[in-house]
Amino acid sequence: MKLIGLTGGIGSGKSTIARRLANHGAVIIDADQVARDVVEPGQPALEAIFDALGHDLRQPDGSLNRSALGSIVFTDKSKLEVLNSIVHPAVKARTLSLFAQAPEGSVVVYDVPLLVEASVDYPFEEIIVASAPESVRIERLMEHRGMTEAEAASRIESQAPEEDRLKIANHVIDTSGDISHTYAQVDALWTQLKNVD
């Protein structure tokens, strides 16, 4: 197995790269999806969140009231730390389990938006960074996610600076052109990646 990290700021085209790699046969593991999975009803992490932060966060169907949780943890740093201490180990355990399930000889791509911010310590062989100028990313967020220019700029500002991501990159995919330009770069990179030792 070859383990590759894929990251990029919001609106950078990371999902487009992940889809193209999946089309080539890469096993894609989405960090955001894993984080949602570990707090599904019946999961130990969800019960731990209710115990630590309040059973009033439980919705009638047993699921987590995410907006109520957000209003608690984003106004109280100590509660955010409590949440992270529950969720991060659960995500790590689930992720390692998914890595272990990948077929032998496969290229596994871990799609993790906050790779720099979270100081993720998985044994990546290489890291791919999706990169586009801030103006392009703002335009995409306004067009595809219905954000105002100010909202888009604020979301970008809340993440690590682009230069921090570029410092850890083995490969940078420039997504500022059209989709065929992005695909051509991903296709060329795939040829390198599939040469698994």
UniProtKB/TrEMBL annotation:
<keyword id="KW-0067">ATP-binding</keyword>
<dbReference type="GO" id="GO:0004140">
    <property type="term" value="F:dephospho-CoA kinase activity"/>
</dbReference>
<feature type="binding site">
    <location>
        <begin position="11"/>
        <end position="16"/>
    </location>
    <ligand>
        <name>ATP</name>
    </ligand>
</feature>
<comment type="function">
    <text>Catalyzes the phosphorylation of the 3'-hydroxyl group of dephosphocoenzyme A to form coenzyme A.</text>
</comment>
<dbReference type="InterPro" id="IPR001977">
    <property type="entry name" value="Depp_CoAkinase"/>
</dbReference>
<keyword id="KW-0547">Nucleotide-binding</keyword>
<dbReference type="GO" id="GO:0005524">
    <property type="term" value="F:ATP binding"/>
</dbReference>
<keyword id="KW-0173">Coenzyme A biosynthesis</keyword>
<dbReference type="InterPro" id="IPR027417">
    <property type="entry name" value="P-loop_NTPase"/>
</dbReference>
<protein>
    <recommendedName>
        <fullName>Dephospho-CoA kinase</fullName>
        <ecNumber>2.7.1.24</ecNumber>
    </recommendedName>
</protein>
<keyword id="KW-0808">Transferase</keyword>
<dbReference type="GO" id="GO:0015937">
    <property type="term" value="P:coenzyme A biosynthetic process"/>
</dbReference>
<dbReference type="GO" id="GO:0005737">
    <property type="term" value="C:cytoplasm"/>
</dbReference>
<keyword id="KW-0963">Cytoplasm</keyword>
<comment type="pathway">
    <text>Cofactor biosynthesis; coenzyme A biosynthesis; CoA from (R)-pantothenate: step 5/5.</text>
</comment>
<keyword id="KW-0418">Kinase</keyword>
<comment type="similarity">
    <text>Belongs to the CoaE family.</text>
</comment>
<dbReference type="Pfam" id="PF01121">
    <property type="entry name" value="CoaE"/>
</dbReference>
